Amino acid sequence: MVFFINTSFGIEKNWELKKNKDEVLIYTREASFSSIREIKCITNFNATLSNLVAFIYDIPAHSQYIYRCKSAKIIKVVNDRELYYYHETETPWPVQNRYGVIFYKIKQNSVTKVVVIESHEVLGFAPKQDGKVEVEKLTASWTFTPKPNGTVEGVYYLNLNPGGSVPSWLINLFATEGPYQTILKMKTLLPQNKYKNAKIGNIVN
Predict the structure, then answer these.
(1) Which pLDDT belongs to residue 148?
(2) By C-alpha distance, which of 26, 140, 142, 162 is closest to 90?
(3) To which CATH superfamily is domain 7-196 assigned?
(4) At residue 121, does pLDDT exceed 80?
(5) Which of 56, 88, 112, 146 would be a feasible disulfide site paired with 70, CB 3.0-4.6 Å?
């Protein structure tokens, strides 16, 4: 998940609001070097920063809330703020499932307390799998900003190239419906006790 601004010939492309429902805003825009649109989602969470980081870092639980995640498992823990994990996405027939190894890294600004969880694909880390396609590119981030009212604003960014041949209807499905359903499910699972007192990466609330 590096949060950055793509530019093309020095001109920033505008975000277009595609969905505004249940306090979840989903935007897309043209990517500079791909026909697949970038995605940005904005919402508020009734949680602390440490709750959210513990939740995101519960890799095996990804299959419970991430849209069409078939499986997720940790491959290598570097330290309490960095890890590698395997993720497989189930796609509608006849499109082949996508898989990949993703690197996660947590950062926190010591002054503003803003937390950024960055992730990107690591090509070739996992053995090739028959009947599946390795994700060609994934750059994503969660940016969590604490608010004066006790909530946390969450901004999710995604720049994805799933690799292989993917029909436009499927890309559009994942561009809007996928993030929306994922965030709604996050909000239902966050209150679980195992995240309330969890400490990952010494995050300061």
Answers:
(1) 94
(2) 162
(3) START domain (3.30.530.20)
(4) yes
(5) 88
